[in-house]
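#struct-pred
JK: can someone run the complex with zinc ion? inputs below
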Amino acid sequence: MIPSALMFYGPEGVGKFLIAQRFARALHCKYFQEETFGNMQCPSCRKAVVGNHPDILILDEGSKIIKIDEIRMLIQTLNLKAFESESKVLIINNAENMTNEAANAILKTLEEPPKNTHIILIVSNLNEMLSTIKSRCVRVRLKPLQPEDISLILQQNHSIEATKASEVSLLASGSLKTALELSDDTSYAELKEISDSVIKLLEASELDPEMLLSTCEVFDKRQDKEKLIFPKLLDILYLYWRDVLVLNSGVEAKKMYVASGRLISIKANSVFRIMELIETVRKDLVFNINLRLAIEYLILEMRKIIEKEQENP
Ligand SMILES: [Zn+2]
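RT: done, structure tokens with the ligand placed:
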């Protein structure tokens, strides 16, 4: 028997909403057990896919607050008899964005669900859900995707070239959504360019002030877009230093992000200090810091650590 209350939870971009939609479609498909399910041959599936199946209700407000009025209307519809199938499904995306009143309204419905209905709550941040709602739902955790899987999906479903797919997948923190955003050609090219410059600045024996200026300036322009790129730049730098650490220790790692030209020879302790530094900057990102100043600070501080070690090896 399929539970009347389900909660799909896990980090953003792992496909929770897609899986819920597929699940709703499967519930209504007459041919679910047959091979034709994937072909979407039946009228029910075709309606579900374009989003106008009368027995599949979807609330997807993106990152907006979900108000009680919206929930009330959906519950009313849920209480009506199913139009075309035996059951009705209600999917609420980003359910943690419900106001308290909206959440309490859902809770009531979860406590006494109308016959033959299924409610699926999609949640990225489990801590923000009322524990009373959590305990009412059968919870299904969706894990972050492995880089190898993301890379494969990018290549097979989105025709992204193998090298790019594998690089992007390492930076996507298990999220297909992030991976797709990063594979967007301009983002990818920009990220590559910036990270290459930063690494060059670190590897150069003398600091090139003009290059420092032009590299950091990038973050002056469009802060909104750079907000996606900046954390990924930090990821690349982190991976770079991890690789330096591994290469310096003489161990061959399974996965190398950076095939460095002039490898910086540096003690493990200093690498750890640099990695800590990167994480400090990452934590500061929540405070809406000036990205240009942050990257300049980071580059200069990293260089200080490198230079100090090269003075007294
Ligand atoms: Zn079907």
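RT: quick notes.
Residues 223-248 form the longest helix (26 residues).
The mean pLDDT is 86.
JK: thanks, will look after standup
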